[in-house]
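Sample intake sheet
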Amino acid sequence: MYILGISAFYHDSAAALIKDETIIGAAQEERFTRKKHDSEFPINAIKYCLEEANINFSQVDAISFYDKPFLKFERLLETYIAEAPKGLKSFLMAIPVWLKEKLFLKHTIIKLLAEEFDIDKKLIESKILFTEHHQSHGASAFFPSPFEDAAVLTLDGVGEWATTSLWHGKSNTMEAVSEIRFPHSLGLLYSAFTYYTGFKVNSGEYKIMGLAPYGQPKYVDLIKEHLIDIKPDGSFKLNMDYFNYASGLTMTSSKFHNLFGGPPREAESEVSQKEMDLARSVQDITEEVVILIAKHAQKTTKSKNLCLAGGVALNCVANGKLLREKIFDKIWIQPAAGDAGGALGAALSAYYQHFNKPRTINPNDNMQGSYLGTKSSENEIIGDFSKYNAVYKKYEETEFYEILANELANEKVIGWHSGRMEFGPRALGGRSIIGDARSQKMQSIMNLKIKYRESFRPFAPSVLAEDVSEYFEHYSESPYMLLVADIQPDKRIPMTKEQEELFGIEKLKISRSTLPAITHVDYSARIQTVHKETNPRYYNLIKNFKEKTGSSVIVNTSFNVRGEPIVCTAEDSYKCFMRTEMDILVVENYILYKTDQPNFSDKEKWQETFKLD
C-alpha cells in the first residue's frame, strides 16, 4: 500500500511517501524551489517521492493531508468574534483568502493534483483523507519510534485548536489524553519573544535558543507575574492583554512593549544585553513548562518512553534537560519535528489508524537516519558541473577519505554533499559544511565568511557514536542533533575571574574547551552521533580524521547560507561553494578546490545581499 502524506499552505510544505511501513521518500518543497520555508503546494516534493518509489500517481492508494481546514476556520472565526471589534483589519485580510482558497482546500488539492498528473478528479477525491494537525505531529513521533508503548507530546504554535497535546501510543494506535487550546501556546509565547527581540517568527526561534546562554534570567519573575500562569502539571494560561497574535497583525501588544521597556528591536540592529536576558528568560520558562508537562505525561500514561514532535520539540536545549531529568527511561524526537514532518505523520496515521495495519517495531527506529531526500546521480553531477566549467577530480574511496582527513586537519572548510538529502531542518552529514572542531578560528570563519550570519550563533559537533561520552556528558545516541549536553570537564578550559565577569558577546572571545569551534559559552554543544549503519560515508570520513588527529569530533553546519534553504542538487552545492569562502567542495567522490575554479561572476553582488551590519 502506497500512502502519500502532504503538508502545505502555512510554512515548510513537504511531501512524504510510504510503502506499507517503509518510508520511501520525504522532502520539503523549499529544497526544490530554493524559497526558504516555502508554503506552496509541494508538487516538486511529490514528484520526487513518486520517482524514488518508481511509481506513477495512479498507484498511490491514499493521500493524507496533515490538518483539517474546517476546524482551523472554526478557530479563526470564533477567535475574531470573541475579540471583536478588535482585529477587524486582520479579519478583513484573512477572510477573503479563506473564502477563496483555504476553506475549499480539498477541491484545491484535487484540482492541483489532477492537472499536474492528468488524473480523474473523482479518483483523487476517493483517496483523500484529512488528519488533525497534532495527530499528524504525534504520529510522526510515535509510529517511526523504537517503542511499543510511549507517552507522546506535541508542542507547537497552534494546529486547528490544540497548541499542546498528550497522547498515549500503544502498538498501532494513539489515544488522545489531554490538550491545551489556542490562544494559550508555549510555541507562540516563544515566538512572541522571537518577534520582540527582532528576529523572524517561524524561522528565528533557534536564534533565541542560541542567544540565551549570553544572558541572565532577569525577566523570569516578570513573565510569570504578567504573561503566563503555570500550574504544577505544566498546564498554563497566557494573559492575552500582552499579546496581539490572536486577532492582530503582530505578535505582541503595546502593553507587552511597556512591560519590557520599549518597542521591539529593529531587525539587523545590534543585539544588546536586554535581548540576551529576554532570550534566557523565555528559554528558562520553556524548559520549566516542558519538564512539568513531561512529569504529568509520565504520571498519566505510566509509560517509560516519551516521543516528541511539534516546533517546540526542536528546542534541543530543553530536550537535553528533559533527558537529564530522567523522567522517562528513553526519549525519541522526530527529526522533522515541525510542520514538514506533519506530511510523514499524516501518511503514517492513515496507514496505522485509518487502515488499522499492524505495526512492526524497529529497535533502531524507522527513520533511516532521516536520509530520505534526493541523491545526485553521476550524470546529474557531471551535467551540473559542466554548466559552470567546474574543475573536478574523482577519487577512489581509500584515497578520498585520506585526502579529506588531511584537509580538515589543515583547517580547511569543506562543503560535503553525499548520499540522500536529509528530511527536516538539520544537516546530518548529507548536505553539511564541515571543519575541524579543534580550530580556534573555525566558529568565526564559518559564521561571518560562509554562513553570513550572527556571530553569536553556535555550531554543532558530529562525533562517532561510540566516542560520544569521551567528549560530552551524554551517554546515549543523538543521531538527529536534537539534544544538547555539556562538554566533559577534562576537555574544558577554566575561565579566570575576569573572564567570568564578562557580559554578552564579549564571552564569545573566550576559548572554553579543547574543541572551541563547537563549545557554546555555557560549555554546551548540540550533539550529533554518527552511525556506520545509517551514514557509512560520513562515519568513514570522521573515522579517518580520528586516525589522523586522534579526535573524532568535527564541526557540522547545514550546507546553505542565511536566507537560503539547505542545498539539494550538485548545482546548488557548487553555487553556494563559489559564493562563499569555503575551501573545498565534495560531491559524492568528486573533490573540487576553490583555487582551481574559474571566476564566478555573481559572487560579489550575491554576497552583498547577505552582508551583516
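Comment: The chain has three domains: 2-145+337-363, 180-331, 378-609. The two ends are 53 Å apart (CA to CA).
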